[in-house]
Write a sequence for this structure.
């Protein structure tokens, strides 16, 4: 039976703005308060989706959140009509209004952790929505995320959905941004690689001193249990606290993996030799030939990796067995990173080609190509059970492009978030989107 790795890219929301809300994310903080262009951001994302579809990859779409999140503002004591809630929040607590308007759900690598059916005890694809507990503006996402994923992967014969972990610091869970799966082929049992920043209950584990470690060991272990993963099929590794303090807020900013290959920076992990040995041993037991490409710090410094998002790239398997690396334009603009990539593709190794995409709107807010997609490995029968409305086709690309051009603004500043008309524009757009993607009622304004 055929199997596929499907990339479901997040569709950028109509309130895409630079709020500078993510402490520890260098790009997010450095571009705070600049004017954004939601229309351009959404179109850049759609262009990447179409390009991958045109290259023969199965590509999907994941809908954005409803923003502003009026219900979140109501829970914080703002009352009246929806327009009055927004007006009061803007007057009394503008930072809360900015947080309720965040379009960070576009980075669906944080939406959930996904385990393919070949790895799970019950033979179903398992999803656990991430609680994103470290940041308020993201912690309010998982209820809608769960409904959207449930509408996309609805058949209980093939798919199992778990609620987000308890919303406390000890179980901080950032989803697939700290999770990678290795395998010989997507339909065969693999090894799931969980990377954490700290332990919540064991003080022997070192922790970063400047920026928060968002993923805990205990959260990763809980997800593995929920998904019914075997000890032989998991590896837990600690991220290097020193690189977290340099702006590596998720593992996907310093490492990326696919198939039998891990592409990582020399300083990505603690106890790197032990981690690689465990991955090699467990994959070898499953018939896979694990490989790793380590990028030396004397060729690419951590600072260059963070600024260029070299590792926040998509590593894709092609039909001929080689791999393609999808990187942002910022990699080409960094001489040291670009020189390394040229030598990488010329080396005769598994990565044979690099393709560059302009994702400036996303990059300025701290997310690159890997942030924009949730990877779901599916067998042929499971792909057939996915809601067909969310699978990218030339027709859907055309429809979504027209939808964006109709409903999105081409400039958005913080002051614009206080405009009640923006909420009406967003709800009108999302109501139409759920019909385009055949999702049904998934947003609070459609349900309440």
């Amino acid at each position: 039976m055929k199997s596929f790795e499907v990339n479901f890219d997040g569709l950028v929301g109509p309130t895409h703005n630079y709020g500078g809300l993510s402490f520890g994310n260098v790009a997010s903080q450095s571009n705070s308060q600049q004017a954004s262009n939601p229309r351009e951001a959404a179109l850049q994302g759609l262009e990447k989706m179409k390009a991958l579809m045109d290259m023969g990859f199965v590509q999907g779409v994941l809908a954005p959140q409803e923003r502003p999140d009026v219900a979140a503002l109501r829970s914080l004591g703002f009352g009246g009509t929806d327009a009055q809630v927004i007006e009061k929040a803007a007057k009394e607590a503008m930072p809360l209004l900015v947080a309720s308007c965040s379009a960070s759900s576009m980075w669906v690598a944080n939406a959930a952790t996904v385990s393919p059916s070949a790895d799970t005890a019950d033979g179903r694809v398992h999803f656990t929505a991430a609680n994103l507990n470290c940041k308020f503006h993201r912690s309010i996402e998982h209820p809608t995320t769960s409904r959207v994923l449930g509408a996309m992967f609805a058949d209980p014969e093939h798919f199992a959905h778990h609620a987000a972990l308890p919303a406390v610091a000890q179980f901080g869970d950032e989803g697939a941004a700290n999770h990678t799966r290795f395998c010989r082929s997507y339909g065969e049992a693999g090894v799931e690689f969980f990377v954490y920043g700290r332990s919540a209950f064991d003080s022997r584990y070192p922790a970063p001193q400047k920026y928060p470690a968002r993923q805990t060991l205990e959260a990763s272990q809980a997800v593995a249990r929920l998904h019914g993963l075997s000890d032989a099929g998991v590896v837990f590794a600690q991220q290097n606290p020193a690189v977290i303090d340099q702006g590596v807020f998720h593992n996907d900013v310093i490492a990326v993996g696919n198939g039998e290959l891990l592409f990582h920076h020399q300083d990505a992990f603690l106890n790197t030799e032990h981690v690689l040995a465990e991955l090699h041993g467990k994959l070898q037991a499953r018939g896979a030939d694990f490989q790793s490409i380590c990028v030396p710090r004397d060729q690419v410094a951590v600072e260059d990796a963070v600024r260029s998002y070299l590792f926040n790239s998509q590593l894709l398997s092609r039909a001929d067995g080689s791999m393609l690396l999808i990187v942002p334009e910022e990699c080409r603009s960094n001489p040291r990173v670009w020189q390394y990539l040229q030598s990488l593709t010329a080396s005769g190794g598994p990565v044979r080609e690099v393709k560059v995409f302009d994702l400036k709107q996303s990059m300025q807010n701290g997310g690159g190509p890997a942030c924009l997609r949730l990877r779901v490995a599916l067998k042929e029968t499971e792909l057939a059970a996915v809601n067909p409305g969310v699978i990218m086709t030339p027709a859907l690309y055309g429809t979504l492009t027209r939808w964006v051009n109709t409903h999105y603004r081409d400039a958005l500043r913080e002051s614009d978030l206080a405009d009640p008309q923006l909420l009406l524009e967003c709800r009108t757009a999302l109501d139409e989107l759920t019909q385009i993607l055949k999702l049904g009622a998934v947003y609070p304004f459609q349900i309440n």
Summary: The chain is about 35% helix and 15% strand.
